[in-house]
Amino acid sequence: MTAVTSQCCAPIAREPLSESDAAELAVLLKAVADPVRLRLLSMIGSHAGGEACVCDLTDAFDLTAPTISHHLKVLRTAGLIDGERRGTWVYYRIIPEVVNKLGALFTPLAEPAPATASSGQVDVELLTV
Fold this sequence. Notes:
Elements: E1 2-6, H1 11-14, H2 19-32, H3 35-46, E2 51-53, H4 54-58, H5 65-77, E3 81-86, E4 89-94, H6 96-106, E5 124-128
Antiparallel strand pairs: 1-5, 2-4, 3-4
């Protein structure tokens, strides 16, 4: 008989966020909470070579160039993307460390956190015969 103990909690449920962590994550979440910005982030991240020219992004939207520029600026100010001017075009790329903070927030734990009596977490023991 083998016993396996598992917890099913994402890091956000593991312990309360500190005030500074919550403020930092809120900026990132707010930046991607807009459908246009979320699509832009996805388009940049999935583009061949890991970077996209602004000229490759604008045609996908029925928006003016200044509006696209505004959305890109919000993503850049939040630290989710970076850009480099090459001639008349700007090429954008995702900053993986920052984008990974968003993903890690909701990713289930790889290893169980120590359970405490007041944690509200439930251990599940699976028995195989």
